[in-house]
Amino acid sequence: MTELSAAHDAAVTDRVRLAGSAYSSDRDLAARQSLYQWQTPRYDLPGIVAEQLGGVRGRGRVVDVGCGNGKFIQRLRQDRPDLDLLGLDIAPGILASVSAPVAVADVTRLPLATGSIDAALALHMLYHVPDIPQAVKELSRVVSHDGLVIASTNSERDKAELGDLWQRAAGDVLGTGRGPARISLSARFTLEKAPSFLREEFGRLETIGLPGIVTVHDPEPVIAHMASYRAWADQHDVPFDATIERARTILVDHIAQHGAFEVTCLGGILVCRR
Ligand SMILES: C[S@@+](CC[C@H](N)C(=O)[O-])C[C@H]1O[C@@H](n2cnc3c(N)ncnc32)[C@H](O)[C@@H]1O
Questions:
Q1: Is the entire prediction scored with pTM above 0.85?
Q2: Average pLDDT across the chain, whole number
Q3: CB atoms near residue 238 (< 10 Å)
Q4: CA distance 237 to 174
Q5: What are the Cα distances from residue 208, in Å, to 78, 125, 131?
């Protein structure tokens, strides 16, 4: 079990896999983001982030580190055209669709002067970083003394039904009852673990919990979310595509019987100040 976790940790943080496959385009990230359109309540995440940046005055410098497909940058450019916004990511491919200025950069070595930034965003990305304490230190280094860092991640309990569905499907494929667990992307920096990392640099932490239930009447959004783990297909001791196909059949049966499939979501945003 420990060995499995170490291998999974290495795979979740492997830069070649992240830049060359998982985030070489926004296809898989977009599939994960789009599941939330079926969530109740719906949260306007970019709106919540924009609200938290309310204290950053005009011309203030904001950097979105690990900006991915620019979901947050796009919205901030609309809502806060007065901000000086920069998007950074280690994956050049995913930056292609994000409007400039953007640059390829690693959160553990930011190409930014000390104290030069009013707010840094690190949204759903710190769990991909091999040295999380160094990333937190670096975010702290670049923000000004009264600046803020906004991080986000998922609880260890997030989307438990998807983990369960995976294990049922994998067990059916292998003919072993319950199959091996799916890789967990956020396990290294969950909502439960995040405060202890962030408190090393920040005295004031506010956590905004975002609990909700995704309800689907069609298996495809859930299947697309599961398939978005394809960059880590080799980390599962079960054929990936066959497991996805089996999960689809289980979902079709479940929906025929119960009318819907529900997934419990528990994400959160951490607003950090010194
Ligand atoms: C799950 S996506 C989140 C994207 C976006 N922040 C969002 O919340 O929609 C994680 C992003 O972090 C980037 N990333 C991973 N490790 C990184 C690192 N060490 N430095 C900068 N970006 C990184 C990935 O390439 C990917 O685009």
A1: yes
A2: 96
A3: 20
A4: 9
A5: 23, 17, 25
Residue 89, ligand 1, Cβ within 6 A = yes
Residue having the nearest C-alpha atom to atom 23 of ligand 1: 66
Q: Going by CA atoms, what residue is nearest to atom 11 of ligand 1? A: 66
pLDDT > 60? residue 1? no
Pocket test for ligand 1, best of 43, 69, 90 (most atoms within 8 A of CB): 90
Q: What is the mean pLDDT of residues 116-135?
A: 98
Ligand 1 atom closest to 94 (CA) = 27
Above pLDDT 70, what percent of the chain?
99
CA angle centred on 246, ends 244 and 249, rounded to 5°? 115
Residue 87 near ligand 1, beta carbon < 6 Å: no
Average pLDDT over residues 184-194: 97
* H or E stretch at 257: helix 240-258
Whether the pLDDT of residue 225 is over 70: the answer is: yes
User: What are the boundaries of each domain within the chain?
Assistant: 3-273
Q: CA 113 → CA 11, 107, 140, distances in Å?
A: 31, 13, 11
Distance from the CA of 110 to the center of ligand 1, in angstroms? Answer: 14
Q: Tell me, what's the pLDDT at 2? A: 43
Residue of the nearest CA to atom 20 in ligand 1? 106
- Report the CATH fold assignment for 3-273: Rossmann fold (3.40.50)
